[in-house]
Amino acid sequence: MDDLSPLVKVSQHNIALLFAHYLTSIKIHAKVEQEDSEYVIYCQSSELDQAKNIFAEFIADPYQEKYQQAAWSSGEVANVNDNSPSLIASFKEQFIAHAGWVTLTIFALCWVVFIASLLGLARPAFQLLHFYPELTMDAFLESPLRLLGPALFHFSWLHIVFNTMWWWQLGGSVERVLGKGALINLFLVTAIFSNLGQFIVTGPNFGGLSGVVYGLVGYVWWYGWLSPEKGLTISKPIIGFLLFWLVLGYVDVLPVNMANTAHLLGLVSGCLLAAINILLMKRR
């Protein structure tokens, strides 16, 4: 650590890592070292005064979106000793802090339906949630929630883990930065468009939150591009990975059936919704 100087000592490992990742994201080299039961944040000696000012702002509200996003984008994995304080508590704290009640409600509903399916209720759960066998006005008036229902039903562990992980990450970011109303609106628009499109192409036997997830990807991507000052961003490698996954679904090389139309229409509707929201915001 020739060019690093000790900046501050904190008792929580996750807080130390969060700040070190943020410094790194703004081009100030930093790292964390454990000393006894506490953690010392070292930073670039030439930037020590600036880092002290940044830390004073950080410690007042360490769960601001820009700090969370820096940690998510860093791609680093911390080695934590077994005696590190309250790892489970730290995980729970960050899990709840990142996501508001809208994010957590959809997350929980997906898992409740999935667990019920594992316990032998798959058929009644699917019958309750699947899209209309025929889309008519009478069918819609009888059960309007079926427009959204397929988004809550998942067919496998990989399916639900992938979808709810991205929903928590991206949905939590949208809810924290833009508010609950923005996330509710985004869920409704992307679920309806992706479900309708998939029904037209393949019929009613589909399910999963992935259309909404791709809607979130498109929304966060375009919102960050068109209005970067809001701090709502998604890294280019993640965008590239998810777009590549979308293409793989269309070339039919994956061993699972993919709701490709839902993914594509979710992505497009999310992009367009971001553009419309920003246009309306600028006009106001």
The number of strands is: 3
Low-pLDDT parts are 75-86
- CATH architect. name of the largest domain: Up-down Bundle
Order of helices and strands: EHEEHHHHHHHHHH
CATH topology of the largest domain: Rhomboid-like fold
Rg, Å, rounded = 22 Å
Number of helices: 11
CATH homologous superfamily grouping of the largest domain = Rhomboid-like
Helix coverage percent of residues?
55-70%
Shape: elongated
Could you give the distance between the termini?
50 Å
> What is the subunit arrangement here?
single chain
The portion of residues forming beta strands comes to: 5-15%
Largest sheet: 3 strands, antiparallel
Describe the protein's architecture and organization.
The structure is a single chain. This protein is mainly α and 284 residues long. The chain has two domains: 4-97, Alpha-Beta Plaits (2-Layer Sandwich), CATH 3.30.70.2350; 99-283, Rhomboid-like (Rhomboid-like fold). The chain has eleven helices and three strands. The protein has helices at 13-25, 48-60, 65-74, 87-98, 101-129, 137-142, 157-178, 180-202, 210-226, 236-251, 260-283; strands at 4-10, 30-35, 38-44. A three-stranded antiparallel β-sheet has the order 1-3-2, with helices on one face. Strand 2 and strand 3 form a beta hairpin. Helix 9 (210-226) packs parallel to helix 11 (260-283). Mean pLDDT is 85; it is low at 75-86.
What topology emerges from the helices and strands here?
Layout: E1 4-10, H1 13-25, E2 30-35, E3 38-44, H2 48-60, H3 65-74, H4 87-98, H5 101-129, H6 137-142, H7 157-178, H8 180-202, H9 210-226, H10 236-251, H11 260-283
Antiparallel strand pairs: 1-3, 2-3
